[in-house]
Amino acid sequence: MTNEEQSQRGWRELARDAGVNVVANLIAAAIIYLLAVAGGYLNANPWIIAGILTPPLILAGVAAMLYALALLGRWGRWPWLALPVVLLVLAGTVVVLIYLHKWADPTW
Predict the structure, then answer these.
(1) Residue 31 sits in the same domain as residue 61
(2) What's the domain range around 107?
(3) What total number of domains does the chain contain?
(4) Are 92 and 35 in contact (CB under 8 A)?
């Protein structure tokens, strides 16, 4: 490996590590904010809480759907099992998002 390749590799690793650090700090800040609101130390801003909770809900839904699709591929005899999982995740996500919207805007 040449010095130039090592230098490029070093910059890529630095950028990756910095990105991971930024994401970890954002997650930690979100958790601290939720704990402070739950403890009564801060007033709750519904839009911030909705913004904190929406990405994990979407990721959980995607993970559950991928799992259901994997079940379809692996268990060809039981394809009916994937449909309830997908529908349950979608229904749960919609219900939580509607609840968050109602909580954020009581006139709705």
Answers:
(1) no
(2) 45-108
(3) 2
(4) no
Tokens, residue 13: 């690793």
- Nearest Cα to 71, choosing from 58, 61, 83? 83
Residues 6 or more apart whose Cβ sits within 8 Å of residue 6: none
20-52: string of b/e by CB count within 10 Å (b at 16+)? eeeeeeeeeebeebbeebeeeeeeeeeeebbeb
Asked if residue 53 and residue 31 are part of one domain, the reply reads no
For 77-107, write each residue's pLDDT tens digit. 556 666 777 777 778 778 777 777 776 666 6
CA distances, 48 to each of 29, 30, 31, 68 (Å): 12, 9, 12, 31
